[in-house]
Amino acid sequence: MADLHDPGVVDQDVDRPELGLDAVEEQLGAIDVLVNNAGIMQLGPFVGEEDATAQRQVDINVHGVMFGMKEILPRFQDRGRGHLVNIASSAGKGGFPGGATYCGTKHFVVGCSEAVRGELRGTNIEVSCVMPGIVNTELAQGLSQARGVKNINPQDVANAIVETLKNPRFDVYVPKSIGPISMFMNILPRRGREAVVRALKADTVLQVDPAARRAYELRAARSEPGLESPEDTKELMR
Question: Does 166 map to a domain?
Answer without folding.
Answer: yes
